[in-house]
Design a protein that fits this description.
The chain has 406 residues and is an alpha+beta fold. The protein has 14 helices and six strands.
Length: 406
């Protein structure tokens, strides 16, 4: 169990350190060569399991079981080498002949091991077990470890050379990959000297810890930073859109809702009528009498003051309803809720003030109100049209009052 304890520890650390990459979807594209690195991690996990089981079975002297597990041990070992080299070459974004050669070498070691394991079934070349359970490494094992050692060393040296030509964080990342490969080479040498100690697992554990701490964590920080910058840009964009929308939806002269906002409201009301069965609302249409005469006589600045004064009066009466400026001297109020229930009192109060103004020769605003009727209306526009006709009738009546007192 002493041998297996190293493998158990390696599995625990492996799952803790690489939990994000192995199990979380949002981290699956963290590295440029992530798919190869994940395969490396999975194959390494399989190797650790084989190593743990080997120590247990070897201690029990279960020859057939330990023989099968030793075959799995060697097979998973060369698979990790294959995916490690693929990861390194893809992470370095290398497209040279060297990448092709190194890839072929990785596959070559894998094929060599498969052939040796097959031959070993009939004639021991990698390892053998005696009847008493004793394990004996054979020349094929040392050739396997030697080939791996050369491959790790060459890939590591190449990574270190690439780091010299790089700068910033990538130089540090490439150096880390190179150092992890050198560390793995050292532990392969140690494994060759003593087959009954788990040096290979320790080397893999150290290599992945280096990659996680100094490469993956940097990539995570970069991703978080990029995500924060993206969110900040989206926030700024949203603020700009909201500002633009507020400007577009607000009448610049009076501060009430604009004509654009009115069209949006009209579409929304039609949807509510269909989808929500909206039936309690009213429309009040307003038109200012005498604006053209004021503009022609006193100028447009005075006309603007007249419009703003009229708007204040409308907003003062209909305090709980949206007010829209739909034209130069035209306003619309949509009555819902409290103002809809109190519409008669509000309109009487408004009309009373306007008629008093008409007698005094002051500001006159014609208005017309209609409410939605289910039997008569199927959209907002029909209510508006009736209110507009009422407004023109009111306008003519107010002109007569004005003439009478002037």
């Amino acid at each position: 169990m002493y041998y297996s304890s190293f493998g158990v520890l390696a599995i625990i650390l492996h799952l803790i350190i690489n939990y994000d990459l192995l199990l979380k979807d949002e981290y699956r594209d963290l590295l440029p060569a992530n798919s190869y690195y994940r395969r490396y991690l999975i194959s390494l996990l399989l190797f650790y399991f084989a190593d743990v089981i080997w120590g247990f079975l070897y201690e029990k002297k279960w020859v057939l079981a330990v023989y099968a597990d030793t075959s799995l041990f060697f097979l998973s070992m060369v698979v990790t080498v294959l995916f490690w080299t693929r990861f390194v070459m893809n992470y370095l974004n290398d497209h040279s002949l060297f990448r092709t050669v190194l890839t072929i070498a990785g596959w070559g070691i894998f094929i060599y091991e498969v052939v040796c394991l097959f031959i070993n079934l009939f004639h021991p070349v990698l390892f053998r077990f005696y009847e008493d359970g004793r394990y004996e490494p054979l020349p094929g094992r040392y050739i396997t470890l030697g080939l791996q050692m050369i491959l790790f060393l060459v890939a590591s040296v190449y990574s270190l050379l690439v780091s010299i030509r790089s700068d910033g964080k990538m130089r540090f990342h490439y150096r880390t990959i190179g150092i992890s490969g050198v560390a793995m080479t050292i532990f392969i040498v140690l494994q060759a000297t003593d087959p009954l100690l788990p040096y290979y697992s320790v080397g893999c554990m150290m290599g992945t810890a280096l990659l996680h701490t100094f490469v993956l964590e940097d990539e995570k920080r970069d991703r978080r930073k990029a995500l924060e910058e993206l969110l900040e840009r989206e926030k700024q964009h949203r603020i700009e859109l909201e500002t633009a929308k507020r400007i577009a939806y607000t009448d610049s002269l009076t501060g009430v809702k604009s004509k654009h906002a009115y069209f949006e409201m009209e579409n929304a009301m039609d949807r509510r009528i269909v989808e929500e069965g909206l039936s309690e609302f009213g429309v009040v249409v307003f038109d200012l009498n005498g604006l053209k005469q004021i503009n022609d006589t006193f100028g447009h600045e005075e006309g603007d003051r007249f419009i703003k004064a009229a708007c204040r009066m409308i907003c003062g009466i209909f305090q709980h309803s949206p007010v829209f400026r739909t034209g130069g001297d035209e306003f619309v109020v949509v009555l819902e809720g409290e103002d809809f229930k109190n519409r008669k009192a509000l309109l009487e109060h408004f009309d009373k003030e306007i008629e008093e103004n008409a007698r005094k020769g002051e500001m006159v605003i014609a208005s017309g109100c209609e409410i939605y009727t289910e039997d008569q209306d199927n959209c907002y526009q029909t209510v508006y049209e009736r209110a507009d006709r009422r407004m023109y009738s009111r306008k003519a009546h107010l002109k007569e009052i004005t003439k009478k007192y002037t």
